Amino acid sequence: MFKKQQLKGKVIAITGAARGIGLATAEALIALGAKVSIGDLDLALAEKEAKRIGAKAFQVDVRDRASFSQFIQDTIDHYGSLYSLVNNAGIMPMGAFIDEDPALADAQIDINFRGVVIGMQLALPELIKQQQGHIVNIASLAGRFALPGSAVYSGTKFAVIGLTEAVAGEFRDSNIQFTAILPSKVLTELTLGTENAAKTIPAVSPQQVANAVVSALIKPRLFIAVPDYLQTVHGAYGLLPQWLQRGARRVLGDDGILTKLDHSAHSSYAKRINKLAK
Fold first, then answer.
1. Which of 79, 83, 153, 269 is the catalytic position?
2. Segment 109-155, tens digit of pLDDT
């Protein structure tokens, strides 16, 4: 049972929160008494959902430092001192690396990684002022088990994990905490069309990821896998010789995105994120 008093009144800003993991996280935090601002490129949807759950919506483009800075300032102006930033915004194109549009690869790097860098650099001065706080970065188990068919995405998530660990090391003697959340396949629009392509990857709901964020904020841990048992699996996997790792992944069919992705089911999401590469 979560201790509600630990998050009651805490000001928490979440990016990419008009849908999916970000929205589920906002709902979970508000249920525990937190004051939540949800930032998203889609301001109309963000405002609609914010009104429904009792949050405040602001537009943010995490690729743009001025936009991100304004989002954090708007949050502070509306609620007061910032306690936590949840860097959730991200995109996940799928397909062969050699065929990926360079502009789409750049968009992933800008949103999935550079956006996290920008957010951390902008939020940390506010947390330092308060001498406390917590930054949560939504990474992925694809940042531990690189996924054929999502090469650049996997690369950005490896980068987020390394960034989180390194910055946590810089602040280890402070009261500022850092967590990277590592979900497996999350049942959102990002993974539409992977029902047959990623059968062997455990599927989790946005609510399960949201619960991991809440858990981290209450009892800090540097890394949290979702589901949690995969944290142990990763440790054991790292001890295997490379030839055995390759064989195991071949048996599990980890190249399913390249061979079994239902492109028609994934097309609506693909069209939406392709606009970000223009």
1. 153
2. 999 999 999 999 999 999 999 999 999 999 999 898 888 889 999 99
Task: Give the per-residue SS3 of 113-149.
Answer: HHHHHHHHHHHHHHHHHHCCEEEEEECCHHHCCCCCC
Q: How far apart are CA 83 and CA 123, in angstroms?
A: 9
CA distance 152 to 114: 13
What's the alpha-carbon Rg for the chain, to the nearest Å? 18
For residue 58, CA distances in Å to 12, 13, 69, 201 come to 13, 10, 12, 34
- Contact criterion met (CB below 8 Å) for 216 and 145: no
Asked, as a colleague might, if the bond just before 220 is cis with ω within 30 of 0, I would say: no
85 dihedral zone (left: phi>0; alpha: psi -120 to 50; beta): beta
Q: Indicate the angle between helix axes 151-170 and 115-130, nearest 10 degrees.
A: 20
Eight-class DSSP state of 82 = -
pLDDT at 249: 56
Residues 225 and 231 sit within 8 Å (Cβ to Cβ): yes
Q: Is 229 a catalytic residue?
A: no
pLDDT (tens digit, 9 = 90+) per residue, 149-160? 899 999 999 999
Could you tell me the two tokens for 86?
């949840």
- Residue with structure tokens 């849908």? 19
Number of domains the chain contains:
1
What's the CATH code of the domain at 233? 3.40.50.720
Phi, psi of 217 (to 5 degrees): -70, -30
Distance of CA 28 to the CA centre of its chain: 16
Confidence (pTM): 0.89
For residue 96, give the 3-state DSSP assignment. Answer: coil
